[in-house]
Amino acid sequence: MDVSSVEGPIVDLAFSRTGELAIAGKRDVWIAAANATARMTIGHSHDEVTCISFDGRRLAIAAKESGLRIVELGGKPQVTQIETKCYWHMMVWSPDGKYIVGAQYEPFLTVIDLEARAPLRELDPEEFDDSGRTALLWVDATLVSTAYNKLVRWRFADVIAGKQRCRNKTGVEGHAHFLDVTRVNDGSLFVLAEVEGHEAYLQRFTPTGEKLGKKLTVSDGTRRIGSLGDSLVLVEDDGARIVSLDGEQLRELDAFGSALAISSTTIAIGSERGVRLIQR
Asked: Is the dihedral of CA 244, 247, 248, 253 positive or negative?
């Protein structure tokens, strides 16, 4: 897979189940496969791509002004346009592939009904958060989102049925912004938290949101975390590394940035300069 032609800054990265890598710049999206890299221009000169997400052979591309595109890969790509503002930081597909949930720069979530090609509803976690980051993760049929110093759990069947209140909220005491969340092999969750921009740490939680153990201090320039199953990838402003679930450094990676995607064979890290691919 050759990504040398991809230009930064990189906004987001996503792997498909079959190994293609989608790379989002501010106005272009590249699809990199084993033997070719294709480029798509999104929106117009005043528009910006905000995030991307794969579901099988379907790639969702969110842009601030031009909305949500669903691109069916294979042969000539088929594109479905959904008109909605996408000021999102992250998005995920529902497990059944019928909905997309977008996380705004405030903790509000937007649920998109793909069959209706329209927003279904917004979800309000009733937590104020001005960090500019809201992360999303599926735990079986429950959607987990971050909001300030909380993990917010939404039973998705209730969301679709119009019962919009969150199932429960758990987190930490005091000032902290939860910036990212990932799940490891034993089912527990790791959250990347930042305190007033000068301290960062990892906190582990059970699948149901109870806190596990003490926090693990990490670099205050840590931007993303990802799971390798029994270890974690930390992406920082000036580096990247793999650490054990106890925080012990296992491997230093020749990369840095703020975008991360992980496949069964490859770690992809995006920065202002482009994309770095590292074998697991």
From this structure: positive
